[in-house]
Amino acid sequence: MLGTIQKWGNSQGVRIPIKILESVQINENDVVEIKELNGGIFIQKKFAKYKDLDELFEGYEGNYKCSEYDFGEDMGREKI
Questions:
Q1: Domain extents in the chain
Q2: Can you give the pLDDT at residue 3?
Q3: Which fold has domain 6-56?
Q4: Is the pTM of this model over 0.70?
Q5: Which residues contact 76 (CB under 8 A, 6 or more apart)?
Q6: pLDDT tens-digit readout, 6-44
Q7: Which of 1, 3, 22, 37 has the fewest CB atoms nearer than 10 Å to its CB?
């Protein structure tokens, strides 16, 4: 199957036929990893690192303490 690289804003893009996307289970708005591999382009679906909030906060002990950050002296006409 052949495709054409086309201008897409400031980048370049290629359309991937729906049959190929369905066969590799990639859907619209899925995050993919794109990398150069052996002189070609490799595209692979990127799965979420965390599946839910419980997994995201696993190991969190609730000991976070917020603090202020010092940006230094005011500069120009701004006031921080």
A1: 6-56
A2: 87
A3: Pemi-like Protein 1; Chain: D (2.10.260)
A4: no
A5: none
A6: 999 999 999 999 999 999 999 998 999 999 999 999 999
A7: 1
